[in-house]
Amino acid sequence: MTKSTACLADQSLDASRSAIARLIPDAMERAVASYRSFVARDIPLEAKEFKDHHTAGRTALAHLEALLRLARWTALPEQGDGEDDLDAVLTEASRALAALRGESE
User: Fold this and answer.
1) What's the number of domains the chain is made of?
2) 4, part of any domain
3) Most buried by CB count within 10 Å: which residue of 6, 9, 50, 93?
């Protein structure tokens, strides 16, 4: 758990939702800009590099999808305790970010 996610874990669900909602627009803007920059590059012709290029593109899109899910989650009214949902969304977002950075789980 990173310092920022530890801070979120110490907050109420509503406070966590609000904190995440404030982060999402900047995160999405940066992710879209990064993806646009990436796809503007020349696509390699060699099979392995071609495959890696497309895998990286799919990973970037998965990151954007995770951010969209987070955005939708922050806009939803609270249902039940919501803790399992928050954990699942944060875990999915962490995995997408790790994959984007090339880290293993």
Assistant:
1) 1
2) no
3) 93
Q: Which tokens hold the place of 45?
A: 């012709």
Three-state SS sequence of 60-86: HHHHHHHHHHHHHHHHCCCCCCCHHHH
* Through-space distance between the first and last CA atoms of the chain, rounded to whole angstroms: 13
Q: What is residue 46's three-state secondary structure?
A: coil
pLDDT tens, N- to C-terminus, the chain (105 residues): 566 555 555 678 788 888 888 989 899 999 999 999 998 999 999 999 999 999 999 999 999 999 998 888 888 665 555 555 666 766 777 777 777 667 654
Q: How many other CB atoms are found less than 10 A from the CB of residue 35? A: 18
Determine, yes or no, domain membership for 2: no
Both tokens of 65, joined, read: 């999808």
Q: Give the type of residue at 51.
A: K
Give me the domain span that covers residue 65. 14-101
